[in-house]
Amino acid sequence: MPRVSPYLARCPRRVLLWLTLWAAALADPVKDSAALLQALDSALSQDEATALLAPHMDNLQSLGQQVMEKVVLRQWWDLARDIVAKSHKQQVDLSFAVRSAVRSLKEEADELLRTLNPKYGLAQQVTPAFQWAQNDTSIFLTIKYTVRWNAPGALEVTEPSVNMSGNFFNFSGLGKHSNNKYRYFLSLDLFDNINADVSTWSSASVGRLSVTLRKRWARKWPRLLWEKKAKIANMHVWMEMQEKLDSTLGGMSSVSNSPITCGATNKLYCIGTDTCKKSANCSQCPGKTEPDLEAFLCAGKPSEKASLGFQDTDMDEHQLGGEIKITRARHDFDVDTYSVFWGKDDRNKLEMTDGKEALVGEALSSSLDLQVRLPQSTLIPDGATHLLVFSQNGYGEYSDPGSLVLKDAALPKAKPGGLVFDDEDGEKGAVRGRVTVLRAENEHKISEYSLHWGRSSTRRSSSSSFISDVRKEEGKDVSHWISHQKIPEGATHLLAFSKNEFGEHPAPASVKIVDKTKPCLEKGADDCPSGVQVSVDSDPDPQQLQVKVAITPAKAESSIDAYALFWGKQSCDSGVENAKNGHIRDFKVGESMEADLPVDTLVPDGSTHLLVFARKDGLGESDFCVSVPIEDNREAEKKEL
Ligand SMILES: *[C@@H]1O[C@H](CO)[C@@H](O)[C@H](O)[C@H]1NC(C)=O
Ligand SMILES: *[C@@H]1O[C@H](CO)[C@@H](O)[C@H](O)[C@H]1NC(C)=O
Ligand SMILES: *[C@@H]1O[C@H](CO)[C@@H](O)[C@H](O)[C@H]1NC(C)=O
Ligand SMILES: *[C@@H]1O[C@H](CO)[C@@H](O)[C@H](O)[C@H]1NC(C)=O
Question: According to the UniProt entry, where is the signal peptide (predicted)?
Fold first, then answer.
């Protein structure tokens, strides 16, 4: 409890008032300041306000910023200075409220001074500075809220308004800059008509308006305004943008006239010759002989066809789906609609059973992406062989359509009938030989067979599985020769898929790879010959032998067809490479393992050994061998000496 002073103790009414104020001071400052603000509002003088605030002067923190603001706005300067002085001692920051209130007073005062100018308040109408650029289909404008492009201007406008129609573009907006009010107004009387429905504008960027005007006809304009001599002081070509766009214009040359320029001299525009004609002379305008006085145009049906592109993305047979892309006629600007029909040939529309023409869809020439969508699973109508596109406008349809042969994407219906392969390569881990692809039962829609390594009878190896494509031959099996190839890691099968330009039948034919090997892949293995013996040479002549040769067969002979006996230049222990010096004979497994080399058997030069290899027909001779040295009996030579 605060100490109650003797003075207050003697005056009970004052005590009550004091207590009320004191309680208010301690109460929630927000709730309290609302009451206080109201009290200040109705205060008639600075004295009254001073009395109201007196209880709070020692606790300025409890006063809201709004109270401070109010004091300043009521211009009780003595009281305000007093509070600010005290705020420093109490370390309370009231600067925000003070500054904001003073600013608003100052503005009011300035505005009062400005109104001394009799013209003040009337927005001055000015033409804003702007830049323009074009590409084939569009005009790009940037309008800056200032009269000179490089001068600062208003950051934003209120009440922006844009009206477009025919060849007119009008913009207005209100803005403030350097203590002046402006009405920015720009009216452009353009070279040619625009398509207002698809033209856009945005005031999103600071200080400027961005506009994209869509040309009614996609052509390069020679200038922005129809009048050659018309000058707008603050008009500039948007060089930076135009340089970028020029590359997309691809050397397109500018036209010279338009319905607007011709209309100005009451003539009509002839598109084909890009000239103005008297209405009676439209008969001389190629393809457009009907004078249209309202449009200032020698008019007529379109006289050029568009072209079509389509790739069926529906893989079911007899069904189509995907986007039909239309490439517009190059010089025909006056086409409004491109209509796509089913065709019974490359010129004539298919007639449906109800006698109607078979329309697929239409694309408006004004859309940037000319496309007609064929929903997936669209059935091809009976008799339809083509897609046709007709150019149309208000005057009719050009009789000569663009056309495209229908190509129904469908995957092959069947896998190959089978796959046959016999390895003819004796090396382990490698194959060689002819793969035969047996013809598919249903060869419809198959153009080739695709050979792959498989990690199972149905799945391709995960990397580099492709071996080769083999062209289908109607009614025949086809084959591919694999010359010595390492079997990729993990590959266990050869697979063949039926294939065409649209894709592959999902299931392959397969054959398990049997990696055939020749005998005796490792030295001393059970399927290597065990040994070879030779008797003493009984032919006394040098370079001639007469001996008995005996082979000790391999322990396991199932993979051996025969043993091959060779002259050798070295023993098998010294390596087999280049050791052979001539074949002597074979010993078939199951027959005698002994043989006589008769008298006068010539020994090839350099032979020091007899070598024996194991052999498997079709795969070749083993890489390892057994050997025995030969000793040439040269008795006769010595005798001669
Ligand atoms: C011209 O500009 C429009 C609007 O930005 C754009 O859609 C169109 O693709 C442009 N034309 C070319 C040829 O790039
Ligand atoms: C644009 O302004 C001009 C000049 O004020 C006026 O003649 C024309 O009718 C206006 N056009 C549109 C579309 O607002
Ligand atoms: C656009 O048209 C409306 C209605 O006619 C008009 O109030 C407005 O001022 C026009 N704006 C411009 C820029 O011409
Ligand atoms: C109209 O055709 C006539 C006869 O061919 C020709 O003399 C005249 O110059 C043409 N006028 C225009 C404006 O093309």
Answer: 1-27
CA distance 444 to 441: 9
Q: How far is the CA of 601 from the centre of ligand 1 (A)?
A: 93
Q: Enumerate the β-bridge partners of residue 289.
A: none
For residue 284, how far is its CA from the centre of ligand 4 (angstroms)? 9
For the entire predicted model, the pTM comes to 0.59
Q: Read off the pLDDT of residues 79-116 as tens digits, 9 standing for 90 and up.
A: 999 999 999 999 999 999 999 999 999 989 988 887 88
Question: In DSSP terms, which residues pair with 390 in a beta bridge?
Answer: 339
Residue 501 Cα distances to 202, 378, 405, 449, angstroms:
48, 21, 16, 11
Quote the DSSP letter at residue 427: S
Torsion angles phi and psi, residue 243, rounded to 5: -65, -40
* d(C-alpha 62, C-alpha 57), whole Å: 9
Nearest residue (by CA) to ligand 4, atom 12, is 277
Residue nearest to atom 14 of ligand 1 (CA): 248
The C-alpha atoms of residue 302 and residue 188 are separated, in whole angstroms, by 30
Residue 23 — pLDDT band, cuts 50, 70, 90? very low
In three-state secondary structure terms, 55 is helix
- Provide the pairing of β-strand 319-327 with 594-602: unpaired
* Nearest ligand to the C-alpha atom of residue 370: 1
DSSP one-letter string for 541-601: STTEEEEEEEEE--S--TT-SEEEEEEESS-GGG-STTTEEEEEEEEETTS-SEEEEEEEE
Q: Which of 170, 174, 189 to mutate to test the pocket of ligand 3 (most atoms within 8 A of CB)?
A: 170
What distance in angstroms lies between residue 248's CA and the mean position of ligand 1's atoms?
Answer: 8
Helix pair angle (46-53, 77-89), 10° resolution: 30
The residue ranking higher by pLDDT, 96 or 123, is: 96
Q: Which ligand is nearest to the CA of 168?
A: 2
Tokens of 395: 């005057």
Residue 505, φ and ψ in degrees, nearest 5: -65, 135
Q: Could you give the CA distance from residue 384 to residue 318 in angstroms, rounded to a whole number?
A: 11
> Which pLDDT does position 27 carry in this prediction?
45
The CA angle 583-584-587, to the nearest 5 degrees, is 105
Q: What mean pLDDT do residues 233-253 have?
A: 88
On the question of pLDDT at 558 being above 60, the answer is yes
pLDDT at site 472: 94
> HEC string of 230-291?
CCCCCEEECHHHHHHHHHHHCCCCCCCCCHHHHHCCCCEEECCCCEEECHHHHHHCCCCCEE
Are 612 and 563 in contact, with CB atoms under 8 Å apart? yes
